[in-house]
Amino acid sequence: MIKQFAQCALMLGLVAVTATHASAALVIAGSYQGWNPPTGTVMGSLGGGLFQANLTGLSANTNFQFKILDDLGTPPANWGDPEWTANNNWFRSDGSGNAIIRLNTNVGSTGQDNMNVGISSGSWTPQVVGDFMNEAGGAGDWNPSDATFNMSSVGANQWQKSMTISTPGTYQIKITDGSGWDRQFGSNGLNPNPNTFSFTTTSPGETVVVNYNSLSPSFSVVPEPSSLLMVSVFGLLATVRNRRRVN
Predict the structure, then answer these.
(1) Is 215's pLDDT higher than 60?
(2) Inter-residue contact 157 to 85 (CB < 8 Å)
(3) CA gap 150, 145 in Å, rounded
(4) In which band, very low, low, confident or very high, does the pLDDT at 231 lie, cut at 50, 70 and 90?
(5) Measured between alpha carbons, how far is 208 from 185 in angstroms, rounded to an integer?
(6) Most exposed residue of 20, 136, 174, 207, measured as fewest CB within 10 angstroms of its CB?
(7) Cα–Cα distance, 179 to 186 (Å, whole number)
(8) What is the DSSP track for 6-71?
(9) What is the pLDDT of residues 84-100, one digit of tens each?
(10) How does pLDDT run across 175-204, given as a tens digit for each residue?
(11) What is this structure's pTM?
(12) Out of 3.40.630.30, 2.60.40.10, 3.40.630.20, 2.60.40.1400, which CATH number does the structure's domain 127-214 have?
């Protein structure tokens, strides 16, 4: 596929994106540009079925909704074209009015909500919510206002949260943006009320680590491996013994 680079001016020149144009374009229309598909943002190909748009010139630190359309090679895009987002998805611009939207066309298909749309997260902090929050020391389950469960940044658009779950069991979990229920991420992506993930603990006081990548969307809950705990214990014992010998 021949790649041609161009810069598209949107919203009377206020919003711009550097994109790669293809014969069948993937086009973003949303509240940031008046929900007008013919003047929507054409996503550029990253190769391997990945497409991305780098938005600039937006209002800073502002929430927007959007959809991704496939014009099937008959531009301009318009409502009625297949959509990669069955429900409105969302993103938040950063302090400079920038945002990134990425689509993985290898996951799912049009007309569905899937975990295939990613967004940059430079101006919002993901928060984990679910029915585990009481067991993890929170003030109540399913509480999107409990900042105790904010995730920590471990890299660009990558987040992590470590929790100790007091009682063994199977629990439900999803992501919010920390402001309430309007903006969520779950097992079927970025939509108003996505499905939950689940995880299971098998021993009292088990530590789990939640990992989330907002741009290349991925999510996992990993119990702390018992082998690492054993190494830590044995390491501590060895240190104590060595100290005793020195003394």
Answers:
(1) yes
(2) no
(3) 10
(4) very low
(5) 19
(6) 207
(7) 16
(8) EEEEETTTTEEEEEEE-SS-EEEEEGGGTS-GGGPEEPEEEETTEEEEEEBSPPTT-EEEEEEEE-
(9) 999 999 999 999 999 99
(10) 999 999 999 999 999 998 999 999 999 999
(11) 0.82
(12) 2.60.40.10
The token pair that represents 193 in the structure block: 């009320």
Q: What are the residue ranges spanned by the domains of the chain? A: 4-119, 127-214
The 8-class DSSP code of residue 221 comes to E
Do 4-119 and 127-214 share a fold?
Answer: yes
Domain 4-119 has CATH 2.60.40: yes
**Pair of tokens at residue 120:** 């940059």
State how far the Cα of 177 lies from the Cα of 222, in Å rounded to an integer.
21
Q: Express the helix, strand and coil content of the chain in percent, nearest 5 each.
A: 10, 40, 45
The mean pLDDT of 1-20, rounded to a whole number, is 36
Can you read off the two tokens belonging to residue 85?
Answer: 């987002």
